[in-house]
Amino acid sequence: MNIFVLGKDPVFPSVNFTSSIGLLAMGGDLSYERLVNAYINGIFPWYSEGEPILWWSPNPRCVLFPFELHVSKSMRKLLSKNSFNLTCDKNFKEVIENCAKQRKSQEKTWITDEMIDAYSELYKSGLAHSVEVWKGKDLVGGLYGVSLGKCFFGESMFYKITNASKFGFIMFVKKLQHMGFLMVDCQVNTWHLMSLGAREIPRAEFIKKLNECLEHKTLKQSWDFLMPDLKSG
Q1: In this structure, are 45 and 137 located in the same domain?
Q2: Do residues 156 and 207 both lie within one domain?
């Protein structure tokens, strides 16, 4: 398995050279320029503490097309109860730190301090966004990711109350529908995402769809106007 070793130049080899397990390259850094270049080429970083930075472009790719969002009967009941309040871009740091903590409770986290710092910079630039799920004054769930053109690249979710992150994800995707987003990149297949309507597509099709998304202007700013204090009703 030949893996490209990245240098200082924030460029990547073609995803056509990706290994059978989806690994393309290693090394480099998490600079703003490199991360943006990665996302526009269908590549993302994913590695554990103590490892070099690993860059992936899996085939197939797990995606959710916003209008294919599936809301189960039980979740529709929960949505109708106004159980949570939602905000967007109100507390990015706490969301990403909670995502890291939840991963640490399961296994070695890939949301390292280096990752937190890098995505916090993307947030300050208006490219990374967070969704906060509140129960009263308590942050009980959330998610974060990156937006370029009409594609949202989901990175991670966390919850402290059952269904809190699923609630936030559903409501956020509904907002993306209204904003005309064409695709949510879910990266890799999980049962949780598939239950919400995500599906796998060949990498070549993903790259084609991604390029269509990138033809549109990026909404590079805080998204707090989306859900200033949104209830589900």
Answers
A1: no
A2: yes
